[in-house]
Design brief:
By secondary structure, the chain is α/β, with parallel strands linked by helices. Helix content is 49%, strand content 20%. Residues 5-157 form the Ketopantoate reductase N-terminal domain.
């Protein structure tokens, strides 16, 4: 029986990893890759394919289907979700008819609240946890640019069938995706969240890229203050993270391309809606929930909320 995998969201994450899957299974009778897209992206990819460029290579891939019409998409076995977090509910409900009780969700969003939000919509389905480390972005609709060598995908579940998890891991590996099936997936996702939340908040608040933050003593301190606050939240929640998680996160940042910035900062600069709710406000709300002060995150939220409302 054919395994049908939908890619919801053709941004830097969905476009890149979805592209690797589409390339690997273009001629397969066993695996079918469906891109779920709309507007100009759907038009461009349908006509010219999805173009992915890296520092060294360039490729154009054509999935089996490119559509936002549930009748064309059909029923899905796996749904890899990679839209912006503010689009979770609307995007999933728009393809509600493509989901049956056996559909497995793999959210690859920025943030940690997505699995609960998806489970609220589809309480009878398995929702995995996942995260990626990659610097990639949309150059123009249907064109993805990946910067630097880093590209890792982590996923797992404490409740899903190990057979289904291994099947998905095999699909990823045969597509040359650097993926890892993780037992302690919640901790892994939070390690990524600590990294991306602090980075998104710092770059957007300070209006600086990675290199500028690392080179300025005051900016570096601001970033470290964010890390201290979010790691305290993680500790209060009982997550077993490395004792040196803050140092690990700073070292991770130092290995990133210094001219790069966060996707949230890029959206702020472009005057687009941005993921303040999942990346910054969530931490402030968790602080309120656990009666812990998060003054640096609150500074970021207060400033950026005014910008977000105006968009």
């Amino acid at each position: 029986m054919q395994t049908r995998i939908g890619i919801l969201g053709l941004g830097g994450v969905g476009g890149y990893f979805g592209g690797l899957l589409a390339k690997a299974y273009a001629e397969s009778d066993e695996i079918e890759i469906i891109f779920i897209a709309r507007g100009e992206t759907q038009k461009v990819v349908s006509e010219s394919g999805l173009k992915i460029s890296t520092d060294e290579t360039e490729m154009i891939v054509f999935p089996s289907i490119v559509s936002n019409d549930p009748k064309v998409i059909g029923k899905l076995d796996y749904l890899i979700c990679a839209t912006k977090t503010y689009d979770i509910e609307e995007s999933l409900l728009s393809i509600n008819k493509c989901i049956n009780k056996n559909t497995i969700f793999l959210p690859l969003y920025n943030g940690v609240d997505a699995p609960d939000r998806i489970s609220d919509l589809f309480p009878d389905n398995q929702v995995l946890q996942g995260c990626v480390y990659i610097v990639s972005m949309i150059n123009t609709p249907g064109v993805i640019k990946k910067v630097g060598p880093y590209e890792k995908l982590f996923f797992g579940s404490r409740t899903a069938s190990i057979y289904k998890l291994n099947a998905l891991q095999s699909i990823f590996q045969k597509a040359a995706i650097d993926s890892k099936l993780v037992d302690a997936i919640e901790e892994t996702v939070w390690e990524k969240f600590i990294f991306i939340s602090a980075l998104a908040s710092a770059t957007s608040y300070l209006n600086q890229n990675i290199g500028e933050i690392l080179e300025s003593a005051s900016s570096r301190k601001f970033y470290a203050d964010l890390l201290n606050e979010i790691t305290m939240i993680a500790a209060i929640k009982g997550l077993e993270l490395p004792n040196d998680i803050i140092m690990q996160t700073i070292l991770k940042l130092e290995k990133m391309p210094h001219a790069a910035t966060s996707s949230m900062h890029r959206d702020v600069l472009a005057g687009r809606k941005f993921e303040l709710g999942s990346l910054t406000e969530f931490v402030v709300n968790e602080g309120v929930k656990y009666e812990m002060e998060t003054p640096t995150y609150k500074l970021v939220l207060d400033k950026l909320a005014k910008i977000n409302i105006a968009i």
